[in-house]
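User: Could you check the structure of this?
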Amino acid sequence: MPSSMRLLVLFILLSGLIAAVAIPVVKWQDKNQAEITARQLTGGSVRAGKAAFGRYGCGSCHLISGMSGADGQVGPSLDRVATRAELAGHLANVPANMERWIQHPQLVAPGNGMPETGVSDPDAKDIAAYLYTLR
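Assistant: Sure, the predicted structure tokens are below.
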């Protein structure tokens, strides 16, 4: 094999190796930045919010891809909920509305399918923080 061909093959292999390393790093950076932004927006804890989401049984109605126990088919999927313009069909997607909707869905939209689950103020902030990482 000519040396120019060997260099080309080496270049291609090195490019593949760099991409294999870079892609997970970029994904980690995106996830990390989403968590920082969510904490700043809500004042809540992403980790505590994910745990509270499970404790309150939210996943029995809502789907979140990749989250164990969040495979419900009754409510809407919450994948990419942070990128939606509206919540509950008419609320601007801002932290105060997200928390209000999480805590008191029947006050926001009487008769809708989401039950009042008794979510506390701190848990609502934390759940909102977690949901704002779903981009």
